[in-house]
Amino acid sequence: MYGFVDLTTGSVAKSTSFSIQTVFNGTNLDQQLSDETGSFVTLTIEGRGNVKQRIESTEVPGMDGALEYTSTTYDVREIAVKYKLSDRTNEGFRSRVNRLNSLLRGSKRQLRFTDEDAFYYATLSENTIPEEESNDLIGTLTFICSDPFKYGKEHILHFESDVITVTNKGTAEVKPVIEMEVLGDPLTLSPFVMVQNQEEQYMLIGEALDVESSTPYQKYERVMYSDANALTGWTTAATGEVDGLIAGKMEAVKDRFQAASYGSGSGWHGPAVKQSLPEALQDFRLNTWITLDNSGQTVGRIELYLLDVNGNQVAKVAMKDVRRGERLGYGEARVGGALANHFLISEYGDRKGSWNNFAGILRIEREGNMWSAFFGKGNAKNGYHTRRFAYWRDTRNKYNIPVAQVVVHMGQYGKNKPCTGGVYSISVEKINQVDQGTPVIVRTGDFIKFDTRAEEITINGEPRTDIVDFGTEYFGLKPGDNQLVIMPNDSFKTTIKYRDTFR
User: Fold this and answer.
1) Beta carbons of 130 and 112 less than 8 angstroms apart
2) Are 491 and 220 in contact (CB under 8 A)?
3) Is 67 found in the same domain as 115?
4) What's the rounded Cα separation, in Å, for the pair 411 and 44?
5) Distance (Å, rounded) from C-alpha 24 to C-alpha 104?
6) Exposed, middle or buried by CB within 10 Å (0-12, 13-18, 19+), for 311?
7) Which residues sit opposite 260 in a β-bridge?
8) pLDDT at 230 over 90
9) CB-neighbour burial class of residue 310 (10 A; exposed 0-12, middle 13-18, buried 19+)
């Protein structure tokens, strides 16, 4: 037990400036709940220095004691904060209790104390207040830390070369995040990315090149790109090339395509523009970055279509809100046209409303008879906090027509107030097939993240479990010096982020 505050004399509200205070989820409870009519004061803290290990053992007949396994793990940490809560009136006291409870919501939130520049990931287990006989009582907050470690300040180091020494000043292994931006010409890169430590543990995506039997090639070759800053090269789409009436006008403003007007119609209507690809593509990938801001009072959609040479729909991706009076965005990825089709994605997201105010990527691709789609809310550098993957094999080869055109459409339904938003970029890639080649997995400007805590490797925010080498170990930084090597050489701008970690 660790005591901090003299309770014998003086105003409790004034004494908070001399006590060690409790900060949960960024809010200082002592300051937030103290004013001229009452106060919250941290009195004592218990459990910060406690260590409890799980020790596995088994009894062996004829052996004294037990056989203890060498590996141990740390049990959850429990931290108890004793506090004093007071107010001048009964009503004020109840209100202060309610405010306290509202500030303690959330799971695995940062818990820290003002005598130390470190924090725990904690969840409130119990707020115990004794029988309320007065407006000046002592209670106890019990926090459970499922992650038993304590974390210090974050370090951000930039690699000056492909080899760096990182010093972990904590007392426990650190799980870092390594971020890499691809530099140079992607065709000169070896088609793999690897991080290795001094103990020859490694994290590897892709495949090292066999110089005798294989050559690198770009699997995804961009054939069309628009950054949406001008409509040069785009023409008005024709009737039947989108689901609805083509009306109104498209414009390019502030590096995005958006609807200048929607025209009129009783159903879906709005502007649509198209552009032909330099060649018809059998295997392809479409990426587009869009935003769709919706509210309970708006109805609207943003859609991109892929057409064949005759203007028939081959596929589309869309983000829309069709609920008048309810704010509910959802995404669609469709193979085929309005009548004959197959939906890869047609839902409101993993949780209801998760696609509201969408800002992110929509993708659809076809390789052979395998179709796939990916929707991600977020961005390539920081990752996608909401995402959806879908796959479907067209075993009957019903939807195998080459794509030759791309259409951008924005729609309003009837006279409903439309959603706002726009298209910020459009990219169409040809998927190359080479029997003996090894594909280059990244290109200039791509972002790669090795997140050892989450045990995940992403490229442009997307998990790439499909190219993670079988021998990959998500190793941490041991206390003391650690040497890290990045390969291939001279190919990346690399940053490592980690926090000092203590038992």
Assistant:
1) no
2) no
3) yes
4) 60
5) 7
6) middle
7) none
8) yes
9) exposed
Burial 285-299 (b: 16+ CB within 10 A, else e): bbbbbbbbbbeeebb
Q: Is 330 helix (H, G, I), strand (E, B) or coil?
A: strand
- Distance between CA atoms of residues 303 and 330, nearest Å: 12
Find the helix or strand (DSSP H, E) in which 409 lies: strand 403-413
Q: Residues 173, 316: one domain? A: no
C-alpha span between 115 and 240 (Å, rounded): 68
CATH number of the CATH domain containing 280 = 2.60.120.200
Find the length of the chain: 503
As for how many domains the chain has, the answer is 3
Q: Are residues 271 and 247 in the same domain?
A: yes
pLDDT at 72: 77
Those residues whose C-beta lies under 8 Å from the C-beta of residue 10, and which sit 6 or more positions away, are none
Regarding whether 379 and 236 lie in a shared domain, the answer is yes
Name the strand (E) or helix (H) holding 288: strand 284-293
The helix/strand/coil state of 206 is strand
Phi-psi region of 349 (alpha: psi -120 to 50; beta: other; left: phi over 0): left
Q: How far apart are the first and last CA of the chain?
A: 18
How far is 412 from 479, CA to CA, in rounded Å? 59
Whether 1 has a pLDDT exceeding 80, the answer reads no
Per residue in 467-476, pLDDT (tens digit) is: 999 999 999 9
Judge if 395 and 461 occupy the same domain: no
